[in-house]
Write a structure and sequence with these properties.
Two copies of one chain form a homodimer. With about 270 residues, the first copy, chain A, is α/β, with parallel strands linked by helices. In chain A, about 35% of the residues lie in helices and about 20% in strands. Chain A is built from ten helices and ten strands. At the A-B interface, strand 5, helix 6 and helix 7 of A face strand 5, helix 6 and helix 7 of B. Strand 5 of chain A pairs antiparallel with strand 5 of chain B, so a sheet runs across the interface.
């Protein structure tokens, strides 16, 4: 595995590749969720490129940019073990200039995650577009956990006519059901145990839908019951375009939950 | 020459090209200015692609979008004569969806042209980025006449790490000095004759600089004298980053003029 840090190195490497490239953009602190993306990319492409870049433009003032977990050495080892070909780890000044042409996500980026984090998705799309243009992947791998992010990246690829396949990958969970997240390390043991109610509420929602209970209010009420005692930020039932539904549409619905544990926000969701 | 109208046609064609591609994005109503770009592209690339698309997102409400000159049949003949390989003429609905990921030009897009046309350059960058992603040119050709546009496109290419050479081409003029523009057709014979004062004022400015007169106020005063009687919107002396100067910097200065003739705005400039 070769570690690249400059634009020039990456461009030079890319120029020599004529076969398929699988790309996994990350903010590091790699966990089994990332590893599942890397393994899928390894199986489906000749060359695998991973980027680790804690992107400042997607953090709002007061968010956890400085505190965001950084584990470069462990991450390098993980990538090496997963047979990554190239690991791109640029500096902030390598990726950004003082003045920038910006990307603006559409209005639906201001609901749900975007309501509490206005502008967050603009920053996500900007860094993803930059990385896409540098890496020129055949296939790019994203987890379904960041569902709204995934939906906006798919829209950007469509709007800007990017020649890239976006591969949506299933959420990877701890054995007890908690969705993997780099932010799980922030949890106290008590919070960690309480957090299980989130995935439990989604399993319950899935069961209800399985029994043909498609009414969104009923589903939400049951989920709230399961999550009693949690600081729920939102439960949302949306279609693939992130429009809220009153009735579940089979095979076009995502149920999303965010709950807060102190300053830590945990996301989870279920794609029906 | 093959005319393409859909994304699929263009992508299919592009996939088969492995040699150099020269690209000239236009809004049609082709004149000798465009022809000079096409000829340069023809001389420097294996394949030449021209696009004709009157891009709605760069027109502000109340501007001349509906009135903008359209001469498709004449334009096709010109491209054929210039040995263009592919002419891309998409519909608006081919290029845009209802909801869009948008491009936002940096702050300096709101001075000069952007002051009277706020948001204009956002639309320019958006369509240029879309076209770049579709055409994937080796070299893209732009006239120096739209100096601010050119400067912002160069910045976008840099910020977004696009692998495209932007070729800046000299302004083409009528034999009497008037800069070529699709909007010149709007001029009455009297306006047409008065408009000569614009290029004359720039020649005069060039002479002053040749005589080591680098004081911007003096140069502007002289230009105003030459353009007496004209409705001058602005005269600006800027560096390549479009920061206003008080003293001409040799080989890093652009002198810009905009004058109004009824509803028609004429631009001209001199790159020192």
């Amino acid at each position: 595995m070769k570690i690249l840090t400059t634009i020039e190195e990456l461009q030079e490497v890319r120029k020599e590749i004529s076969s398929s490239v699988g790309f996994i953009p990350t903010m590091g602190a790699l966990h089994d969720g990332h590893i599942s993306l890397i393994k899928k990319a390894r199986a489906e492409n000749d060359i695998v490129i991973v980027s680790i870049f804690v992107n400042p433009t997607q953090f709002l003032p007061g968010e956890d940019l400085d505190k965001y977990p950084r584990r470069d050495e462990a991450d390098k080892k993980i990538c090496q073990m997963c047979k990554v070909d190239y690991l791109f780890m640029p500096k902030i000044t390598t990726m950004y200039e003082k003045e920038e042409v910006l990307i603006k996500a559409p209005n639906r980026s201001y609901v749900l995650e975007g309501e509490t984090r206005p502008g967050h998705f603009d920053g996500v799309l900007q860094v993803v577009l930059k990385l896409f243009n540098l890496v020129k992947p055949t296939n790019a791998y994203f987890g379904k956990k960041d569902a709204q992010q995934l939906s906006l990246i798919i829209q950007m690829v469509k709007n800007l006519f990017l020649d890239i396949n976006i591969i949506a990958c299933d959420i990877v969970r701890e054995s007890d059901g908690l969705a993997m997240s780099s932010r799980n390390v922030y949890l106290t043991p008590e919070q960690r145990s309480e957090a299980l109610k989130i995935s439990k509420s989604l399993r319950k929602a899935g069961e209800l839908v399985g029994k043909k209970q498609l009414n969104v209010e009923t589903i939400k009420a049951t989920m709230k019951e399961v999550m009693s005692g949690l600081d729920i930020e939102y439960i949302a039932v949306v279609n693939r375009n992130f429009e809220e539904l009153t009735q579940v549409e089979l095979s076009n619905t995502i149920i999303l939950v965010v709950a807060r544990f102190g300053n830590t926000r945990l996301l989870d969701n279920l794609w029906l």
